[in-house]
Structures are given as structure tokens and as C-alpha cells.
Amino acid sequence: MSEGSSLIRGLEGVVAAETRLCDLDGKNGRLAYGGYDIEDLARQATFEEVAYLLWHGELPGKPQLDRFVSELISARSIPRELIEAFRLMPRSTDPMRALQAAVAILGMHDPDTTDNSHDANRRKAARVASQLAIAICAHHRVRGGQEPVTPAADLGHAANFLYMLTGVRPSATAAKAFDASLTLYAEHEMNASTFTTRVITSTQSDMHSAVAGGVGALKGPLHGGAGEAVMHTLLEIGEVASVERFTEDALRTKRRLMGFGHRVYRAGDPRAAILRGMAEEACRQSGQFKWFQISVTLHERISAAKGLIPNVDFYSAPLFYSLGIPVDLFTPVIAAGRIAGWTANIIEQHDDNRLIRPRGEYTGAGRRAFVPLARR
Ligand code: SDX
After folding, report:
1. For 39-69, b where at least 16 C-beta lie within 10 A, e where not — what string?
2. What is the pLDDT of residues 68-87, one digit of tens each?
3. CB 279, CB 322: distance < 8 Å
4. Model confidence over 198-221: pLDDT tens digits?
5. Minimal-distance CA residue to ligand 1 atom 31
6. What is the percentage of the chain residues whose pLDDT exceeds 90?
7. For residue 267, how far is its CA from the centre of ligand 1 (angstroms)?
């Protein structure tokens, strides 16, 4: 761009879309979906109710919820071809890469694939939310040489996820903690992966294409991939007594501390505070309290030294670990929650669309004469 321009690196502070989904108050550290405080939703609503709220704009009444849950349950199957594709993938395939491929394959089999109408998008959102969870668990089982676990129709979305992962029905406490964490991850306005889904949608592409792009954006360690990196940090530290030495080294070498900092929150990420309580309980109950203790000690030490706040991905790491979720599935699990928000944003974007197309600030060579190949 050569006309007078104002470059905003990383689009910080740029308002890119109107949204009725999520109200993020970074200054005061507050978050609400559709007007409901995140803490109330995490503690008192199920992930299914939250998905309904994001897709319909209101919390469901009992008959609406019953119908909605039946719709989600009836979508609990993935094409045989997708399981075959998982079997053909190298065993070492990263679960997020497999998930991105899975979303593309699900798009090949969805009856509404190219229909971008509001109603078709709503139907696809329900299907892809159910199928994403199944795909994550099926890929995990297949790469370990196991058969996928058939979904259990009598379990809620979160409990069924844990069941499909392990083949064991989770305790009510584990299911509730996992359900609440899916809610906490469900939506967060123009974060990088959701913005990606909006950009793809704005070209009038379809929901599966947009979600596949969202998965790709979430994978990076500055975004959803941070949770996995936090757990590697905790494992590297290993003992509470080693936090001090780790912190000194990290500060001296100016190491990027995963799970800390946020583009928007200044006073603290409200989700981290809720997850901290959940992690404490889950770590204690699973006999792995050490991971919570290391997390708290590291949090206090880093916040005191650098003023950095823990973000959503910090305490979810010891929580997921104590729930028995394999470390390389932390990011897919975040996707299993964020699918509700991605699809809600895709619906919102399709319903009031304008192509998203920012400008670039040109910093290359000035205009010059072309030199034919023979003379270069
Ligand atoms: C998520 O946007 C969303 O809403 C995302 C999310 C969602 O729900 O979708 O909330 C989920 O992605 C959480 C973030 C997960 N990522 C991490 O935990 C990775 C570690 N954190 C960062 O790299 C960083 O804080 C970001 C990516 C989260 C934010 O990056 P910004 O806004 O571009 O900030 P920056 O990297 O430019 O940092 C500003 C300053 C720098 O210092 P100065 O050069 O100004 O002196 O703060 C320092 C940074 O060095 N800093 C850090 C740090 N985070 C910021 N220093 C060390 N460790 C960190 N984690």
C-alpha cells in the first residue's frame, strides 16, 4: 500500500466484526457469552446449553434442550472412510494435523456441505460439534492400535468424550470438570483461530473449510498449542523445589513462558481463575497434587517477577493431565470446546457478510527496470 497508511502490527486493538456472542472486557478481566457471566455458565450450565446459547442466542428451556441433545446424540457417528483414513495416516501424525484432515473429510460426507444458509449452518454446527469429538478420540485410539469406542447415547457430550477416549465411564466429578472446561474454551471473540474462520467464511466458503482453517490456527503454541507446552514446562520442572531454579533460568534467558500473557486481558483472564480451582480439586482427587503445587508456585513467581498473568491455557494443563488426557490431545480438546464458538461465528459471519480483506504495507524494493533472464 503506497497511499498514507497506518500499520497496526498484529491487528492489536482493531475491531474486525460486530458480534452478539461474546463480551470480553479485557480491562476488568470479565467475560460473558450472550450476556451470561462465564463463571455462572461454567458452574451451572452444561456444554450443550452453552452451545445452544451460542447458536440460538438464548439459553434453551427444558423441551428445547431435550430436542437439541437428541440432535447432537443422533449426530454421534463418523463415516467409516474417516476411520480408514486414520488407519492410513503415519502413526506419528500430530493429532491436530489429523483433526484438520478429519474436518475436511467430514465436509466431503456432510449432506449440507455447500449450503451456507442459516438453517443448514445450524444443522452442520451440531453435526460437526458431535463429530469433532468422535474424530479426536477415534484417531487417538487408532494410532495406539486400538479400536474406536462406540459413543454412549446415555452420556452427555463431555462424559461421552472421556468415555470414547478411554473406554471407561468417567466419574461424575471428572465429567463435570471436563464439561466446564469445554464451556470455558467455547468462545472468545476475535482470537486468532476464530478470526481465521471468519476470514475463510467471508469469501463465501463453507463451514467445514472454515473450521479446518480454525484448527490450523489453533495448533500454534502462541494460541491453543500453549496448553500442551505448559504441561511440558511442568514436567520439565518436575518438583516444587525446582520452580525457583527454573524461573531464574527462564528470566535470565528471556524464555517465553507458555500459558502466561494475553493480547487483551490486562487484569487477569477470568477463565484461568476458574480453572485454577478446578485443577486444584482434580489434582487432589487423582493423587497428583504435585502438578497443581508446581503450577501455583510458578504462577506466583512469574507474576511477581514479570507482572504476567496466567491465561486460559495455564491451569487447564494440570487439570487435563489429572483427568488422564494425553498431553498431545490438550489442543484437540480445546478445539472440541472452541468448535461451538467457531461455528457460531461462522453462522454470524454468513448472516451478515462482507469480504475481509485488509491491506499490506509494502517494504520491498522501489520500482525498477525488468532484467531478462539471460542478463541476470
Ligand atoms: C490463547 O486471543 C485470544 O483470545 C486467545 C485465547 C482464546 O481463548 O482464544 O485466550 C487463547 O491463545 C491464550 C494464549 C496462549 N499462548 C501462550 O500462552 C503463549 C505465551 N504467551 C505469549 O507469547 C503472549 O503473551 C501472547 C501470544 C498470548 C500475546 O502476545 P502479544 O499480545 O503479541 O504480546 P507480545 O508477545 O508482543 O508481548 C508483549 C510483551 C513483550 O515484552 P516487551 O518486548 O514489550 O518488553 O510482554 C512480554 C513480551 O516479551 N511477554 C512475555 C510473555 N507474554 C508477553 N514474555 C515472556 N513470556 C510470555 N508468555
Report:
1. bebbeebbbbbbbbbbbeeebbeeeebeebb
2. 999 999 999 999 999 999 99
3. yes
4. 999 999 999 999 999 999 999 999
5. 263
6. 98
7. 14
| Known catalytic membership, residue 25 | no
How confident is the model over 85-126, as pLDDT tens digits?
Answer: 999 999 999 999 999 999 999 999 999 999 999 999 999 999
Q: Grade residue 355 by pLDDT with cuts at 50, 70 and 90.
A: very high
Ligand 1 centre from 311 Cα, in Å? 9
* 203 CB neighbour count, 10 Å cutoff: 13
Hey, what's the cell of 259? Answer: 500459558
Are residues 103 and 211 in contact, defined by beta-carbon separation less than 8 angstroms?
A: yes
Which residue in the list 262, 269, 299, 350 is annotated as catalytic?
262
- CB-neighbour burial class of residue 371 (10 A; exposed 0-12, middle 13-18, buried 19+): exposed
Burial class of residue 30 in the structure, from the number of CB atoms within 10 Å of its CB (0-12 exposed, 13-18 middle, 19+ buried): middle
For atom 30 of ligand 1, the residue with the nearest CA is: 263
Longest dimension (CA), the chain: 76
What count of other Cβ atoms lies within 10 Å of the Cβ of residue 104? 16
Over its C-alpha atoms, the chain yields an Rg (Å, rounded) of: 22
Tell which atom from ligand 1 comes closest to the C-alpha of 194: 9
Start-to-end Cα distance in the chain: 28
Can you give the pLDDT at residue 2?
54
Task: Give CA–CA dist 316/46, Å, rounded.
Answer: 18
Distance between CA 323 and CA 174 in Å, rounded? 7
pLDDT, tens digit (0-9, with 9 covering 90-100), for 317-335: 999 999 999 999 999 999 9
- Please report the domains of the chain, with CATH numbers, ordered by start residue: 22-219+328-351 (1.10.580.10), 226-322 (1.10.230.10)
Cell of 31: 467475560
For residue 165, which of 184, 154, 178 has the smallest C-alpha distance?
Answer: 178
38 lines ligand 1 (CB under 6 A): no
Dist. CA 256 → ligand 1 center (Å): 9
Confidence of residue 3 (pLDDT cuts 50, 70, 90): low
Q: In angstroms, what CA-CA distances link 47 with 35, 59, 77, 365, 373?
A: 16, 11, 19, 52, 61
| Total residues found in the chain within this entry | 376
Q: In whole angstroms, give the CA distance from residue 261 to residue 270.
A: 13
Check if 262 is active-site.
Answer: yes
